[in-house]
Amino acid sequence: MNENDQFLRKIIHVFTGLAIFTLSFLVEKHVLLLLIIAGSLFAFFTYPFSYFNFIHQTSRKSYGTLFYPAGILSAFVLLYPNDINLFRAALLVLTLSDTLANFGGSIKKGNYYLQITNETKSIYGIAFYTLSSTLIYFILLSQSFSFSYLLLLMILSLHLEIISFRGSDNLSIPMGLALFFRATQNLQDHHFYGLIMLIIAFGTGGFLLFKFRILTRWGSLLAYFLGVYLAGILGWKWAIPVIMFFVTSVIFTKINSRLNGKIKTASQRNIWQVLANILPAVISSAIYLITEEEFFIYIFIALIAAVTADTWASEIGPVFNKQCFSIQDFRLHGAGISGGISLAGTLAASFAALLISAVSWYIFFDGFEISKILLIAISGLLASFVDSFLGAFLEPGLIRRKFFKYNTSEEKITPNDIVNITASLSAPLFLLIIWQHF
């Protein structure tokens, strides 16, 4: 696609956004919703036809022209019950600020480029985007919101632009802003300043995790967002058990790598390894936010206990026991094999599950209930044994699959990641069974 076609596509997007912005003053909300739906359907149905390439085709592998209508529609639906100015702000940031970022990025003289995700972003592009989006917020929203709110909003919108790739900002910007508007509608000023400080702290921490090769680029980015979500949205009660798991895992992995001569990059975790350990717990926390059912806190603790027990067993076991018992062939093998069980590893897993369960229970419920703590710890410990079982019988088959065998990228998903997330999901099942009987 040549530059003229690229420019034409941008003009069409700007014209479409400004047309919707104008219509928001002229027609009722339900009429505007029908028009946006009609426009979105037109975009999706014309995408496969070459005649409409001047609208859809890009010079790189991008899905921006599909994300664009999806982003506008999702933002409008999410904000339908709210002040229309919130939708207008999200729409203009997508329409104008994102286009100005593209324009600034094309300036060559004196520009500087940085890579946060797989795509490079330019300093000029970021500056154009930040200034224009800030101006939009102050014009449309300053009468209704405080300075701290607008500052946090500016930081969020900058995140949504910087971490985008393959045109995903056309979806992440309007939908992300809409979700932010909905999530913060009942918060006070001190919450906004607290979130800003958390963003700075976890942003610095994420950079250091990448700088010191503890996590990969995407892994550290995910850890940053998880930290903000857990500590900023849920509260420190939810963040502390996860931090305990992560810090102890890093320490024991480094010790095991050093003592057993593993390669230097062996302990660097990618995004899939982070997800395999934390995704089920995050889902449990989200369900608690929706339902406010206390049992999902128990499930959250059991899930963190499970992954901590498994990690401690895998990293501490080979330090103290040079051999382990394989549940695959019932023989002794060198320590560290998949499906191996050792005395030191079992003791470490037991202590890890009990420690996480006890500390978490005290943090959440301000005290100790030994019987419930033990039930949760046992659930986590049993899940770590499921991990060994799957490591012995499921992982070898997955390793032979072409998908895993020939994937050499840094951010690849591995059979061990599949085993980890599957095993951790058994912790809530064990907890339900044990809870019903005891």
Can you describe what's shown?
With 438 residues, the chain is mostly helical. The protein folds into two domains: 3-183, no CATH class; 191-437, no CATH class. The chain has 19 helices and five strands. The protein has helices at 3-26, 29-46, 53-56, 64-78, 84-105, 123-141, 147-162, 169-183, 189-211, 217-234, 236-259, 271-291, 295-320, 343-365, 370-393, 395-399, 402-405, 415-424, 426-437; strands at residues 113-115, 120-122, 323-326, 332-334, 340-341. A three-stranded antiparallel sheet has the order 4-3-5. Strands 1-2 form a two-stranded antiparallel sheet. Helix 7 (147-162) runs antiparallel to helix 8 (169-183), helix 10 (217-234) packs antiparallel against helix 11 (236-259) and helix 15 (370-393) runs antiparallel to helix 18. The termini are far apart. The mean pLDDT is 86.
